[in-house]
Amino acid sequence: MNLHLPPELQKELDTVRHFFTTYYPDVKLYLVGGAVRDMVMGREIYDLDIECFGIDPETFDAAMRRLGAKGVGKSFFVYKYGHLDIALPRIERKVARGHRGFSVEIARDTKEASRRRDFTMNALMLDLQRGEIVDHWGGLDDIRKRLIRVVDFGKFAEDSLRVLRAMQFSARLKFRIEKESRDLMRSIALDDLTHERIFWEFEKMFMAQWLHYGLFAMFDLLIAKKLLALTTERYTYIRMARHMQKARALEDEAMRPYYFLFVLSTDMHRSAVGLCDRIHTPNVYKKVLTFQKRVPHHITDRFLGALSLRFPIRQWLGIYADRVAERSKHLNIYEKGFDPGIRPAQLLDEGLSGKALGKELRRRILAAVRANFRADR
Question: What pTM was estimated for this model as a whole?
Fold first, then answer.
């Protein structure tokens, strides 16, 4: 099966396959995880996870040193070679609270190795010698149905982060969540997650194409209630979903990470900074969202003109509202901000300084906005 890999990634994979064929011909190599899912879906692949069957840990460690791979998780038998993660197949058992509270042992067959995966679409394996997909859990059928389904309910519940992964996968892949899996996820507490792990999954959703799918999953899986203290009525959800769809179609790419929280805070009348605190965003999120203006009930040309003193309207996160993109292009403030033509040097020449200069500068700038933009439309 053709993986359609970038040249550098294909070269690294060919090197690893040749290495094992030459020195360890009895070892079976399987491509596992998201790369197989993305290959089936025709999505771009950026890195690969390989599991090696039929080799003991000591021989595997020696092989990885010979290859020149670097250990990144010795207790989990994981090595990195370029963009490839090479590991022994493993079985994980929960023994303590938190994402590090697992005991690990070697898996002897592909079904047991794939059982630890979160969703059926991520439990697919590709036999790199035969070029055949191994599908123990119906992942291919679920991909065709665009469905997120849990592999093993008991193992899934051992790591609550997987509930957030369902949310961000829904937004990234435009998949819905299977009902029994959804019921399980709703029952899982999220109070053992670290700040970093919470934000990582939200960040993946923020960058996703189908934000409204992530929005639905966030409320449906009770993530919003448990982590953000938010619930919503159907009408409000539909409005937010529509705004997120429009925002994705019109967005300035540099502002992409911030649209989800902006729409959420605007439509639910919540503090954007408060939402940032709830999911532990980096400070840049607070700075950007604090500097942005919420969408007013009625957007006038004068509002847009005044806003464009801060930045071009294309950088306003409310770009999705009330024909803003079309109107701001007509007003010539979409790509560049409004220049009122008032300079402090002029006021200095007029003998103004200090507070008087600042006050007069603001007055003249606002007068220029009023003169150039109408308040009645």
Answer: 0.90
